Each structure stands twice: as C-alpha cells, then as structure tokens.
Predict the structure.
Amino acid sequence: MKYFIGNWKMFGIPGSIKILDRINNYVKKDKARSKNYKVIISPPYTLLENFTKSFKNKKISISAQNCFHKNNYGSHTGFVSPYMIKKLGVKHVIIGHSENREAGENNHILKEKVLASVKNNLNIIFCIGENKYEKRKKLTLNVLKNQIRKSLDKKYDFKKILIAYEPIWSIGSGKLPSENELSNIIINLKNFLKMNYNKKHNFRILYGGSVDSKSIHKFKKIKHLDGFLIGGASKSSKKFIDIIKNFYK
Ligand code: PGA
C-alpha cells in the first residue's frame, strides 16, 4: 500500500472542499490502481468536521495536522486534544512536523502527543527530519534515530504509525535528496526499527519535501518508500492528482 498524504498547513476555507471532491472523483475512477494506494488530506482544524462528514465512506481520509499533548479537556486556550479530534470522526493525526518542532515542540512534548493519540486510537503520521547544518555534519541518521527513540515507544502498535521522513532543507525549497541518499536513509531506518522495535513488523516510511508531479518520477524508483507527505502541491487538485498519475506511469 502506498500513501499519498496532503498537508494543507495554514490553507483552506469551507469552499476548498471542491479540491477534495475532484481528488475523490479521480480516485473513484482510478479503480484498478486505487486498491494499491490511500489518499489522506490534512486540512486545518477549522475544516476537520465538515470534511470528515462530507468524506465519510469516500475514497479520501481526513487527518488533523497536530494535536495538544494532553488528552481530554483542560485549561489550554486555543488548543485541541486528541480526544476532541477523535470525536469528530477523524482517524489520523500528524505529529512532529518540523514547522511545529521549530516553533518549540520538543521530543518530550512529542512523546506525550504520541501517547495521547495512541490512547485515542488515532493513526499517527510521525514526522522526522534533519536540518541543513545536521546534514552537512553528516548527522542525519543520528538525528532521525534520536527523534524516533525519544518519542516512540516499543509497545506501540506500528500498524497505526506511519513515519514521514522530511528533511527540513527540502521542505518548500525545491531541493531534493538524491535517489541514492534517500534510498539509503529509508533502508537504514527500517533496519533500525526492526532491530530496536519489532523484528517482525513491516515498518512504513514516507518521504516529504518538495514532492510534486516532476520530482515524483525520481522518488517512484525507490522501492522501500511507502508513500509521500505532500505540502505545497496538495493544495491544487490537479497537482495532487498528477503526482498519483505520474507515480504509476
Ligand atoms: P512541501 O511540504 O511539499 O511543500 O515541501 C512538505 C511538508 O511540509 O509536509
């Protein structure tokens, strides 16, 4: 199964539902191939309820972009807990996106967010990634393994966790890792997860960072990759659909 996950970030108003309608229609028509892939779109909190209701039993699943690190209710102005997300019927949540790590979410808080989401039976898209400096210093794998180790517990059911490798220097920049570089990182991380987490589990790792209808040609050659987390190009139905089309071309 391949995953095409759109991360809308701070984009979208109620009328943007037409983007999802078009994507949904495409997936519906793409019968032969769509058994092999899953589309998840992650709009801002403001659209979660509307989109989740509208796309119930359709070809697209909806994900939240984040959640608070404490569960249930509390005196936390402006935040939304995993419990509140789950109660909307949302099944997925992105945790650890580098934009939020940069805004102050540390490994400890992310660990709590994961735990609170696990308790609510949400599927987690857990983001990891190194910055330009760490890459230059050849610290990439250390950084990624540390981010995994610090927030993900061995006890978790990894059927409900997707890991998204998103090099920070690639997000929104058009800069891409080489095929070789990316392939090695994915293989290395999967080995690390098997050795340290669960020997039997088939861990799934996505790539994110400047994925579009052109760059997908390069990434589709990497067999161990389980899908993509797509930012900019997920805000246009045409661009998003072209990524899927070109992946299978
Ligand atoms: P991008 O963003 O596709 O615009 O590079 C990816 C992300 O931040 O998840």
About this structure: The domain at 2-247 is CATH 3.20.20.70 (TIM Barrel). The chain has eleven helices and eight strands.
